[in-house]
Amino acid sequence: MVVPPWDVRADASGAGHGGRFACETARMGDVAVRAQGRVAANGIELAYETFGDAGDPAIVLVMGWATQMIAWPDELCAGLAGRGHFVVRFDNRDVGASTHLAHVVPPRLGEVLTRRRQPPYTIGDMADDVTGLLDGLGLASVHLVGASMGGFIAQTVALRHPDRVRSLTLFMTSTGSLRVGQARPRIYARLLRREVISGRDAAVAAAVETFRLIGSRGDLFDEAFVRDVAGRSWDRGFDPAGSLRQLEATVTQPNRTAALRRITVPTLVIHGLHDPLVAPSGGLAVARAIPSARFVGYPGMGHDLPRSLWPEFAEQIAALAARGERARRPGPVSG
């Protein structure tokens, strides 16, 4: 049985245009069309997939560190499309079928952490990738959803381009402050452990080991889903150097706490209360910083998206998007 969420309303406290490439389409259940393609964005190419009718209000899903767009479950995407949205998921730079900056050798992480070397790119650059994606797909403004590092990116888009964001949903993320959202020491040790992945089976086994450490507890942990995503991610493109470049962008992100007070769109922060990678204090800090943001915490949920919660996540995102749509409508004219 899924434990009902802990729901807390938090008060506020103290790119160039790209061209769309050819895409393929397919039927998917009761969702009208599923399409995939590549688009030029911010000097690179981003692989994307869409669900639903392009004439509906758009929801763009931004995934986290070293994780491909397929980690956004098909069922969640289809559920959002079935609720009247055009859903876009995409691979960030350096993962999956998007551009990999193979010509850029990442410096050692220690040199980046001590500021002796600059990261190959920043969270700000990845945010500019998102706005380039929107330009390439002809989307003037969207409902933005980010998970983990994708939450850092989504916050940055909302701060840099507030006119492009209608609502903001943030999963398992933080403000960039070193005072909140920090992982447990043993988690750092596991994620930074050097290991050679020799093939598909080894990649799947490593993913299962990692998510047994950082993922949800008990019945909420879905090993079959982890294995499926890990195997397909290997098939689509495994790139340890790309993961390191993304990590170096993450560890050098700025503290956005003060800036987040400028965000005025409807915002929902969802966090697992047993997340050992990004502690719940991170999500709570985001919700406190953004005026009128709402925090929803789930007992037993870790740093993942439990299958049993997908329908509820879809409902929460769609409800927030409806608020964002209502906020865009002009009020009655008096006279």
Question: Could you explain how this protein is built, in words?
Answer:
- This protein is of the alpha/beta class.
- The protein has one domain (6-326): 3-Layer(aba) Sandwich (Rossmann fold).
- 35% of the residues lie in helices and 19% in strands.
- The protein contains 10 helices and 10 strands.
- The protein has helices spanning 74-82, 109-113, 123-137, 149-160, 185-191, 200-214, 223-236, 240-251, 280-289, 310-328; strands spanning 6-9, 24-28, 31-41, 44-51, 58-62, 86-90, 142-147, 165-171, 267-272, 294-298.
- It is globular, with a radius of gyration of 19 Å.
Write the layout of secondary structure elements.
Blueprint: E1 6-9, E2 24-28, E3 31-41, E4 44-51, E5 58-62, H1 74-82, E6 86-90, H2 109-113, H3 123-137, E7 142-147, H4 149-160, E8 165-171, H5 185-191, H6 200-214, H7 223-236, H8 240-251, E9 267-272, H9 280-289, E10 294-298, H10 310-328
What's the short story on this structure?
With 335 residues, the protein is α/β, with parallel strands linked by helices. It is built from ten helices and ten strands.
